């Protein structure tokens, strides 16, 4: 139990660590910001496919592919649905819509991205918790290390956009902290409710994968291609994807 608790804190804390690194490098030129964001998009793309969608198919049994497809579509549709109501999210960030009327659309997109990070952290946490319900401790640790490595760049990339949008440092840190806390809750839930988690895990993983694919395609790639540095961002995405692919294969 102590190992599970430490793992939960470590997996969630990786996002916070990334956020702290993001505060140190909050004033990054567009060229480097697009490269970093492109790398994170590659990491998220590999994590969505290798860490969420493929396991969803494997855990789903005979009808795993159908469950996965439905989960992906539901995840993407949920993010699209949330996008329609996302103006209400600026209240969580302490933003006055009248004072920031010209930038509210950008603020809402940023908060949508942060929300997606928090959403997909829940089934990732459940996956980490469920992995400790098996007798293979090595595989459980591998899963958790992979999730933690992915969370670091996620924490990094959400800081600068929120600060640039006018969200206070305190609110920015609290929002980043909340995305990591969701993963802690998911890990503990998965460990204590293995039977329930095993039943919902295929759909939950696919749902999370759908939210990640939606954000990568709808927000991250267009953002990295809007400042004239799309070539570097593209190669950075490929490198990020390959890094996670190598990690998944050799670790």
Q: Could you describe the 3D structure shown?
A:
With 251 residues, the protein is an all-alpha fold. It has one domain. 82% of the residues lie in helices and 0% in strands. The protein is built from nine helices and no strands. α3 packs across α8 (194-224) and α7 packs antiparallel against α8 (194-224). It starts with a helix and ends with a helix. Residues 87-102 have low confidence and may be disordered.
For the structure shown, list the relevant keywords.
mainly alpha, 0% strand, 251 residues, 82% helix
Short description:
By secondary structure, the chain is mainly α. It has helices spanning 2-24, 30-59, 64-85, 104-131, 137-157, 159-164, 169-192, 194-224, 230-250.
Radius of gyration: 17 Å
| Strand tally | 0
Number of distinct helices: 9
What amount of the residues lies in strands?
under 5%
N-to-C SSE series? HHHHHHHHH
Q: What is the averaged pLDDT score? A: 76
**Which structural class is indicated by helix and strand composition?**
mainly alpha
List the helices and strands and how they pair.
Elements: H1 2-24, H2 30-59, H3 64-85, H4 104-131, H5 137-157, H6 159-164, H7 169-192, H8 194-224, H9 230-250
Helix pairs in contact: 1-5, 1-7, 2-3, 2-5, 2-8, 2-9, 3-8, 4-5, 4-7, 4-8, 7-8
């Amino acid at each position: 139990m102590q190992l599970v608790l430490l793992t939960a804190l470590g997996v969630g804390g990786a996002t916070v660590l990334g956020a702290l690194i993001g505060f140190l490098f909050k004033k990054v030129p567009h060229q480097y910001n697009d490269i970093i964001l492109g790398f994170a998009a590659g990491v998220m793309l590999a994590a969505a496919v290798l860490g969420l969608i493929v396991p969803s198919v494997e855990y789903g049994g005979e009808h795993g592919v159908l469950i996965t497809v439905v989960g992906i579509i539901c995840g993407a549709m949920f993010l699209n649905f949330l996008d329609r109501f996302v103006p209400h999210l600026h209240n969580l960030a302490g933003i006055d819509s009248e004072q920031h009327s010209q930038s509210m659309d950008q603020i809402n997109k940023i908060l949508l991205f942060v929300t997606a990070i928090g959403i997909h952290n829940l089934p990732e946490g459940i996956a980490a918790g469920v992995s400790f319900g098996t007798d293979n401790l090595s595989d459980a640790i591998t899963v958790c290390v992979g999730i933690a490595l992915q969370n670091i760049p996620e924490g990094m990339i959400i800081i600068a956009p929120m600060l640039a949008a006018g969200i206070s440092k305190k609110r920015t840190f609290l929002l980043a902290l909340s995305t990591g806390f969701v993963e802690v809750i998911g890990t503990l839930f998965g460990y204590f409710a293995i039977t329930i988690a095993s039943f919902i895990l295929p759909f939950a993983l696919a749902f999370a994968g759908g939210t990640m694919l939606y954000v990568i395609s709808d927000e991250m790639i267009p953002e990295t291609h809007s400042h004239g540095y799309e070539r570097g961002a593209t190669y950075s995405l490929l490198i990020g994807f390959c890094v996670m692919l190598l990690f998944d294969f050799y670790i």
